[in-house]
């Protein structure tokens, strides 16, 4: 893996999630990474409901049968294409997208 890569593409199961620690504008942040085929989306690992992490343990995210990301704290569901909360206590809010790109089989901040 190249030095500043977050993770290798194959380090994320297709349709699955990973978590990466990054520094954005000088602040340490936890990122949620979601892989779909050769594409990866990034979001801050912060739920818009109560600001909690979305994973129940580092890198362990829940996915519903409908294919939504489910916040481990109070069960808000998020569409993974847009980050929009489609059900639960913060319906209509959004996860904060963080642009990432895949290069040479590795995932980088864009
Ligand atoms: S903090 Fe995510 S649903 Fe409450």
TrEMBL record:
Record key words, sorted: 2Fe-2S, Iron, Iron-sulfur, Metal-binding
InterPro entries per the UniProt record, alphabetical: Rieske_2Fe-2S (IPR017941), Rieske_2Fe-2S_sf (IPR036922)
Q: Which GO terms describe its molecular function?
A: 2 iron, 2 sulfur cluster binding; metal ion binding
Where is the Rieske domain positioned along the sequence? Answer: 12-109
Highest taxon above the source species: Bacteria
PANTHER family on file? PTHR40261, RIESKE DOMAIN-CONTAINING PROTEIN
Protein name per UniProt: Rieske (2Fe-2S) protein
**In which organism is this protein found?**
Stenotrophomonas tumulicola
């Amino acid at each position: 893996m190249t030095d500043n890569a977050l993770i290798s593409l194959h380090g994320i199961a297709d349709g699955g999630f990973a978590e990466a620690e990054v520094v954005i504008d000088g602040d340490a942040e936890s990122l949620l990474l979601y892989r779909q085929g050769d594409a990866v989306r990034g979001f801050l690992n912060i739920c818009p409901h109560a600001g909690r992490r979305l994973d129940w343990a580092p890198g362990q995210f829940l996915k519903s049968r409908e294919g939504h990301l489910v916040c481990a704290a109070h069960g808000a569901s998020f569409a993974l294409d847009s980050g929009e909360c489609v059900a639960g206590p913060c319906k209509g809010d959004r996860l904060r997208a963080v642009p990432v790109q895949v290069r040479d089989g590795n995932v980088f901040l864009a």
